[in-house]
Amino acid sequence: RDLYFSQVTWSTYASMLRILKKYSLRFHKTFESSELIPGHTLTFSSSPGRIFSGDDFYLISSGLATMETTIGNGNPDLYQYITPQTNLEYVRNIVANRLATTAKEWTDYFAEHNSGTYNNQWMVVDYKKFKPGQPLPDGLLYVLEQLPHYINVTDATHVLRTQSYWPSYNVPASEFIFNMSGSPEQVKKFGDWFTYDKTPRALIFKRDHGKVLDMDSMIALMRYNDYKNDPLSRCNCTPPYSAENAISARSDLNPPDGKYPFAALGHRGHGSTDMKLTNSSLFTKLEFTAVGGPTWGQVPPFRWSTSGLKDKHDGQPDLWQFTPFTHHWKSGEYEDFSSGLAE
Length: 343
Prior knowledge:
Layout: E1 5-7, E2 10-12, E3 19-24, E4 41-46, E5 57-60, E6 64-70, H1 89-99, H2 103-111, E7 120-126, E8 141-147, E9 150-155, H3 157-163, H4 175-180, H5 183-190, H6 200-208, H7 215-222, E10 270-272, E11 274-278, H8 280-283, E12 289-292, E13 302-303, H9 304-307, E14 319-320, E15 325-326, H10 335-342
Antiparallel strand pairs: 1-11, 2-10, 3-4, 4-5, 5-6, 6-7, 7-8, 8-9, 11-12, 12-15, 13-14
Helix pairs in contact: 1-2
C-alpha cells in the first residue's frame, strides 16, 4: 500500500509561469541552540518572486506535507473580523511549515493570529506516521478550515481509514464552517454544485478513486476531464455540459456564447494549471511529480493563439502540451531527515 498526496491548482491561465523550488534554510531553534528547526528544508510549487507557494503545496523536512484548496467566504457578516494588521495567511503558513513537527502542531501554529484573509481548507499529512501495510494511526491527517474569526480543526485520519481518500473541492467539509461561510444560501440558489459531497468533482472522485493503483493512474485521475462524455459533467446549461465540471477544469473550452446559471460554469481563461503528486517513496527525498499547464489528452491541449483569450501571458509558451516529470533535487541535504522518517 502507498499514500498519495496530490493537488491540482485551479487558477487563471495568466498565472502559468511557475517554478518548483527547494529552500534549505538551516535556522536553529534559538540563538543559543545548535538544533535545527524541524522545517529547515522545503520543496514546493511556486511562482517567480514568491517566498511561499501560493497554491499551496509543500513537502517539508519535518516529515509533514501540507496543501490547501481555497474555500472563500460568502458571509458578509464576517467581513468585520478581517484583520489585515495581524499575520497574513502566507506568513502563518511559513511559520507553521518551519516549526511544526506533527500535523496537530501545524494547525496550532497556523491558527494563531487569524487574519481572515485567503480562507482555505488546509490538509496536513504526517508521513512519519505512515507504515505501508499497517493501520493508519490517529494524527496522520489533520484538516484545518479558516474563515474570518473562525478556525475549525479535525483529525481526519478516520476518513482515510474508512473510504481510503480525503477529498477537497474548494467547499468546506465541516458543517460549522460550511454554514458560517454562506454556502447554504448558495445551495438554495444554485443547487448541489455548491455542496461538499454532491458537487461534480466529489461525485467523480467517489466513482473513480478505486481505479487508482499506482502513480500513473493517480495522475490520470487528477488530470481527468471528459466533460462532453461524462454524465457527471452535465449541467442545466447550453450546451448541456461544462468543462468546469471535472477534476481538472478547462473553462476555456466552454463556448463564449453558451448559457450558464452562474459564471464559474461558463467561458473564461481559468482552469487547472498544474498537477503535483508525491508518494511515500518520493517523499523521503522531498520529491514530487509535476506537470504544468491545463490538462490535455481527453481534451485538446491549450494554445494561446487559438484560444480567443485576451489575457496577458508574457513569457509563456503558445502551446501547453507538457508531460509529467519528477525533478531530482541535489543530494546531500536529507540524510538526517530520511533516517528520522524511517524510524
